[in-house]
Every structure is written in C-alpha cells, then in structure tokens.
Amino acid sequence: MVTKSTKEAPETSAVTATKKTVAVKATPKAVKPAEETTPLTEAQLLKMPESDYMNAAQIAFFRARLQLLEKDLLSNAGTTTENLRETQFVPDPADRATIEEEHAIELRTRDRERKLLKKVQQCISRLDSGEYGWCEETGEPISLRRLLARPTATLSLEAQERREMRQKMFGD
C-alpha cells in the first residue's frame, strides 16, 4: 500500500519515504532475507532484543555452529581410527604400556565425543522442530550466552542448577 501512495503522489515523497522506511522496519519479512545472507557474529547476536529470540537469523547462526561442531567430531573420529590402525611393535614392555595407555586415553576421549555428537545431532533435530533454545523443564528461553557457551544446552541455567542440586542431595 505504501508503494502505491509513493507512485501516485510524487510531491509528498519526503513523507512517503519516511512511511516506507517505517514500513520496511515494521515488516520482519523485509528484514529477514538480508540477515539470512550475512551470518551473524556473536556480538550481533547478543545485541539483538529479547523479542527477536530464535528468529531466522539466530536459528541459522546456531545451525551453522552445530553443523560445524558435528563435522569436527566426525573428523576426529576418523583420525582416531587411522591412529589406532597404525600398530607399533615395541619390544620394551614399558614403551608398549605407554602406547597402550595413550590409546586408552584417546578411546575415552572419542567416547565422550561420541556422546557429544549424539547431543549435537539431537539439537539439530530440535532446531528443525522449533524446540531449540527453549528449556525442556520450564519452557522458558535459554539465554543466548548459555547457548553460545554450550550449544547443546537443553535446560536454562536456573533449571540446570536445580537439577544439579537435586542430584547432589539425592544422588539421582
């Protein structure tokens, strides 16, 4: 509607130009394509108002971060497999024990990464379903700072503290 009034009344271009600017700012569809083409930085993400929580740009930011983490974890798993295939025959029992201990540490690390990979993949599916960024326990938004620090967080900070306190008290 604003564009029609601009074409019909060129003499009021200053007034309609202002209306046009306001209309562009008010309609989120006009803003989203520009945000989607340029990836957000952490600083830009944190400066966004709370009313924009988990908008398209934020979802794209966290999707990219989670996919990069997933790619890194899968790459590490491949590297570990290659390292373990390289068998070293060492006659000295102490050296052999050292090598076996290094392999055990690497396997424990990869096991932890395997569990993290599962969480990352769950978070990506939560992004697809629109549940990412919302506390599973309370339904409240998880703070962006928490999601930046731990992208696989499923609980708000308060809910996580309550859970840890219950585990400490009752040994769940």
What does this structure look like?
By secondary structure, the chain is an all-alpha fold. It has one domain (39-170): Four Helix Bundle (Hemerythrin (Met), subunit A), CATH 1.20.120. The protein contains eight helices and no strands. Helix 1 packs antiparallel against helix 2 (13-26) and helix 5 packs antiparallel against helix 6 (93-129). The radius of gyration is 25 Å and the shape is elongated. The N and C termini lie far apart (60 Å).
**Cα-atom radius of gyration:** 25 Å
- Shape field: elongated
Question: So what's the CATH class?
Answer: Mainly Alpha
Q: Strand portion, in percent?
A: under 5%
Q: What is CATH's topology name? A: Four Helix Bundle (Hemerythrin (Met), subunit A)
CATH-derived architecture:
Up-down Bundle
Main pleated-sheet profile: none
Q: Quick check: average pLDDT?
A: 79
Structural category: mainly alpha
Instruction: Supply the number of helical segments.
Output: 8
Roughly how many Å apart are the termini? Answer: 60 Å
Summarize the model shown.
The chain is about 70% helix and about 0% strand. The protein is mainly α.
Topology:
Layout: H1 2-8, H2 13-26, H3 28-37, H4 42-47, H5 56-85, H6 93-129, H7 144-149, H8 157-170
Helix pairs in contact: 1-2, 5-6
Which structural traits does this protein have?
172 residues, Four Helix Bundle (Hemerythrin (Met), subunit A), elongated
